[in-house]
């Protein structure tokens, strides 16, 4: 029997570190994009696009790169995405150190968009890590493992909400980008040193035949195995209707998480007239709570099941969204946003507890669809909420939360459908793909 490297624990923490550093790669770009507006004479819509492009690439790249996990394991796609992020961050460091602000010109706007898209590659590591961790762990521990992975990794935006003002005031924009670049390079080096594929992929990479690799990997404790090529896993997971239900659930909770992380600073400032410091602190509270609670949320899903956990968490999200819709004061809004953070965070954990169970032979493909299209909510939801702010009426900031009321209500119905339709009722063609 060939020797394989790593353990489920080291696989989990290596992927978590990689995702944390990858997510951190965009923590500087969005909040500082407005600083390019004056020197480059950008319109509000151009700034809005600049802020959004990392989320766009970070969501859509999840689909093909997550499917790649099913053919080679997570290590290669993870490193490619981190290296793309380094290229984007290095480009921004050069631009801000050498051209900002006096030599910046409107003609450089397309370059900034491209660099922002490259930085967004770091967010796409999420779905790659989901597949990598899933193949390391048995089904009974998927909730814990994936909750820990996503919960700790998603702490990056909240933590950097505190560090960013210090970095900008102490070092300036160019040096801050250089520091973030160094941080990203260190994180990539750590992942390169620690990250290992699950046993099956290591054995296949060493030249073992498919069935021999499966047999030896099973003996090493691996339970999940891929169906075939990246295209196979995308096609197979797309044929399973439960995949699309999970996309809807994740669009509501994780897409909503990304949307509110961007939306809440303006909500606190414009609607409730808080100070900038308080607005940042309250946004960080939401972001950190929604991320950290994924860890116990995953264990909770292991205990009572993913469907039940999803229903309870979506109901909590719905209550929080109703509170936010009708809130006119700071205290009530804090209660509402805390409820939404708890509901969204736990539902995020429940969804990825369900992915390996619902589509066990195409985990990477399913994780790509769910993670990619679900995260697309971060790009779509804020403009829809902005439609409620007409003629400068600040009350629209509260009314806009009706979007989350509607999303949560529809997601609850979808989760109920999952619960009342047991997997035993799924046609065999959906449960076991054809292999070649």
Overall description:
- With 436 residues, the protein is mainly α.
- The protein has one domain: Growth Hormone, Chain: A, CATH 1.20.1250.
- It is built from 24 helices and no strands.
- The C terminus is likely disordered.
Number of helices: 24
Mean pLDDT across residues: 88
The CATH homology group name = MFS general substrate transporter like domains
CATH class: Mainly Alpha
Q: Sketch the major β-sheet.
A: none
CATH architecture: Up-down Bundle
Counting structural domains, the number is 1
Separation of termini? 25 Å
Question: Percent of residues in beta strands?
Answer: under 5%
Helix content: over 70%
Any chance you could write out the topology, listing elements then pairs?
Layout lengths: L7 H17 L4 H4 L4 H4 L3 H17 L1 H11 L2 H24 L10 H11 L1 H16 L5 H12 L1 H17 L1 H22 L4 H7 L4 H10 L10 H10 L1 H31 L4 H17 L1 H11 L1 H21 L3 H29 L4 H13 L1 H10 L9 H4 L2 H19 L7 H4 L5
Helix pairs in contact: 1-8, 1-9, 1-10, 1-11, 4-7, 4-8, 4-20, 5-6, 5-8, 5-14, 5-20, 6-7, 6-8, 6-11, 8-9, 8-20, 9-17, 9-19, 10-11, 10-16, 12-13, 14-20, 15-16, 15-19, 15-20, 15-21, 15-23, 16-19, 17-18, 17-19, 18-19, 18-23
């Amino acid at each position: 029997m060939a020797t394989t490297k790593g353990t489920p624990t080291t696989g989990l923490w290596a992927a978590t570190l990689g995702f944390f550093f990858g997510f951190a790669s965009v923590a500087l770009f969005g909040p500082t994009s407005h600083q390019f507006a004056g020197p480059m004479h950008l319109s509000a819509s151009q700034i809005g696009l600049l802020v959004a492009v990392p989320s766009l690439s970070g969501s859509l790249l999840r689909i093909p790169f997550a499917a790649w996990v099913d053919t080679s394991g997570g290590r290669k796609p993870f490193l490619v995405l981190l290296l793309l992020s380094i290229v984007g961050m290095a480009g921004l460091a050069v631009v801000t150190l050498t051209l900002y602000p006096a030599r910046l010109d409107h003609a450089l706007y397309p370059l900034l968009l491209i660099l922002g898209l490259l930085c967004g590659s770091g967010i796409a590591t999420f779905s790659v890590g989901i597949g990598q961790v899933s193949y390391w762990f048995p089904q009974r521990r998927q909730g814990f493992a994936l909750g820990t992975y996503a919960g700790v990794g998603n702490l990056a935006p909240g933590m950097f909400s505190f560090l960013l003002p210090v970095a900008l005031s102490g070092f300036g924009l160019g040096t801050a980008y250089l520091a973030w670049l160094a941080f990203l390079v260190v994180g990539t080096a750590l992942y390169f040193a620690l990250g290992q594929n699950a046993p099956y992929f290591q054995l296949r990479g060493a030249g073992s035949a498919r069935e021999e690799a499966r047999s030896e990997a099973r003996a090493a404790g691996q339970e999940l195995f891929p169906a075939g090529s990246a295209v196979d896993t995308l096609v197979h997971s797309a044929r399973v209707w439960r995949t699309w239900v999970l996309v809807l659930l994740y669009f509501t909770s994780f897409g909503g998480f990304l949307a509110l992380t961007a939306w809440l600073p303006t909500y606190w400032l414009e609607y409730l007239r808080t100070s900038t410091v308080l607005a940042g602190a309250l946004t960080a509270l939401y972001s950190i709570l929604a991320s950290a609670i994924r860890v116990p949320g995953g264990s909770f899903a292991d205990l009572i099941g993913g469907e039940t956990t999803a229903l309870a968490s979506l109901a909590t999200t719905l209550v929080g969204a109703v509170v936010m819709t009708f809130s006119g004061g700071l205290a009530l809004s804090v209660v509402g946003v805390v409820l939404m953070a708890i509901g969204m965070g736990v539902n995020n954990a429940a969804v990825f507890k369900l992915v390996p169970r619902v589509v066990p032979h195409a985990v990477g493909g399913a994780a790509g669809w769910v993670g990619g299209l679900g995260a697309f909510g971060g790009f779509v939801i804020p403009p829809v909420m902005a439609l409620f702010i007409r003629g400068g009426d600040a009350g629209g900031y509260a009314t806009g939360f009706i979007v989350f009321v509607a999303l949560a209500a529809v997601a609850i119905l979808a989760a109920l459908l999952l619960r009342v339709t047991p997997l035993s009722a799924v046609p065999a063609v959906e449960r076991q793909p054809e292999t070649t």
